[in-house]
Amino acid sequence: MxxxxxTRGTPAIIKKQGNKTLLITWEDGHVSPYxxxxxxxxxxxxxxxxxxxxxxxxxxxxxxxxxxxxxxEPVGGYGLSFSFSDQHATGIYHFDYLREICPCxxxxxx
Amino acid sequence: xxxxxxxxxxxxSRIQDxxxxxxxxxxxxxxxxxxxxSKVGFEIVLPMPLFPVKEKMREEAxxxxxxxxxxxxxxxxxxxxxxGHAATDRAxxxxxxNIVAIGSGKGGVxxxxxxxxLAVGLAKYGAKVGLVDGDIYGPTIPIxxxxxxxxxxxxxxxxxxxxxxxxxxxxxxxxxxxxxPLIWRGPMAHKAVxxxxxxxxxxxxxxxxxxxxxxxxxxxxxxxxxxALVGAVIVSTPQDVGLTISMKTFRMFxxxxxxxxxxxxxxxxxxxSHCGEREEIFGHGMVAQESERLKVPFLGEIPLDIAIxxxxxxxxxxxIADPEAPSAKAYLEIIERLAAQIxxxxxxxxxxxxxxxxxxxxxxxxx
Lengths: 110, 367
Known about the structure:
The structure holds 2 protein chains of 2 kinds. Chain A is an alpha+beta fold. In chain A, 20% of the residues lie in helices and 30% in strands. Chain A has one domain: NE0471 N-terminal domain-like (2-Layer Sandwich). In chain A, strands 1-2-3 form a 3-stranded antiparallel sheet. Chain A has a 3-stranded antiparallel sheet with strand order 4-5-6. The model of chain A has no long low-confidence stretch (mean pLDDT 90). In chain B, the strands form 4 sheets. Chain B has an 8-stranded mixed sheet, with helices on both faces. In chain B, strands 1-2-3 form a 3-stranded mixed sheet, covered by helices on one side. Chains A and B meet through β1 and β4 of A and α6 and β16 of B.
């Protein structure tokens, strides 16, 4: 009943380590290490992405180096939202999207 | 020699659960085995309400154990403990085990009638059930539940749901005053959904049925963002045009990782109230075919029956108004399959853990 696509985008454990790092262990065993700064730079909300073209309107360089993640909240059963130290909290990060932007070396090479 | 617990379990493991296609021992349904001399007692705890059909399982279990050597009497107790959905370990509505969305592609397919009957039917078999009328633009659940004029009361700032036919229910229609039509934009619809889901004193519930507005829109989006649903049911008519649109609603649920629990074909055929002949007004078999193609369970078909409409208008869902009617029996089968699909979903889905470790504090002060 569970296909590959499904387990790929399904997290088993979501772990916020302090205010800098978020670790997601997926159902297929893969581990994605995100920095909260990286997550903030890839915010998918309508203020950071052009809704029609999907082009990023946020300048990633404008995000301060010491940006922190303060809170992790589940969104229904399909995603997460974060409260960042720059007061931004409007992005809904779909699990599939989080898997897609996995910053680990293996995924970046792909 | 008295029979051992091991022998009893071995015998009972020959009984297959018809929904899970696994034996009842592996599934962990057998509990509290007690042996005193030649008398044996045990419980079968099912993760769904005790529908009449489950009596078969009790008889089968009693028969098998009675056949063991050294057993003269068997006492089997059937119990129900509805299992809950655990998408994340932070439940949005504490005490509510399963939230089920009832959707449709287009309006007028009888979604609210179906929702009311599912809710009342589940309650009839002992489940604790809540019902939310999420159709902000055309709330009809209060009429079908026979409680259209009541005013909402509050306790500690939380809405007390209205109770009828053993079901606690809340209508978004209660939030609007008078006979004014609702011209709500996104943010208002969003607020109404949250209010009628989260700010209600539901108490413990096995199932919370949410009757959605037709199509895909603000209410749907808010619902899937606010709570983790155990799954969604789509109500469709046999007409292909209705079905194509229903599939769009399924896609929306799919995109937000809401599990498809099944499709119900409503207005499946008409039973003539004069001669009893069955007429397939909108054609037949399309929904079953489509659900097979999509690998989504087909939960069953409900006929067009004037009694359903008549009783609904009187505030009495047919499952309790006339349980012997063919349409009420069709409902019962659907309710059984739906409860089974929910328990299967809960059996296989694992909770998502969210762990928050505090920022390590590198500075310690010693004075």
